[in-house]
Design a protein that fits this description.
- Helices cover about 30% and strands about 20% of the residues.
- By secondary structure, the protein is α+β, with helices and mostly antiparallel strands.
- The protein has a domain of about 40 residues.
- It has a three-stranded antiparallel sheet, with helices on one face.
- The protein is extended, with a radius of gyration of 14 Å.
- InterPro entries: DUF6316.
- This is DUF6316 domain-containing protein.
C-alpha cells in the first residue's frame, strides 16, 4: 500500500489499512473517525456507499466556519 501524508498530518506517515472489511459475507467500510457503515451485499456496494458518504461530508460546513 502506498504511504502518503494526508492534509493536516505532521511527522511520519501512520499505519494505514483498508477501509473495507467483511463479516459473515456482508461488507462494511470504516471512517477515520471510527464509524462503521454497512452491511452491504458486496465490496463494490460498500465502495459506492463510501463514495456517497464522502460526498455528503464534503457538503458539511467546516468546524472553523461554525465558530
Amino acid at each position: 500500500m502506498e504511504q502518503y501524508k494526508r492534509m493536516g498530518e505532521d511527522g511520519s506517515v501512520p499505519f494505514r489499512s483498508s477501509r473495507f472489511f467483511c463479516v459473515g459475507n456482508r461488507w462494511y467500510f470504516t471512517t477515520r473517525e471510527g464509524f462503521d457503515s454497512g452491511p452491504y451485499a458486496t465490496r463494490d456496494r460498500a465502495h459506492i456507499g463510501l463514495k456517497r458518504f464522502l460526498h455528503v461530508v464534503k457538503l458539511l460546513p467546516d468546524e472553523e466556519a461554525l465558530h
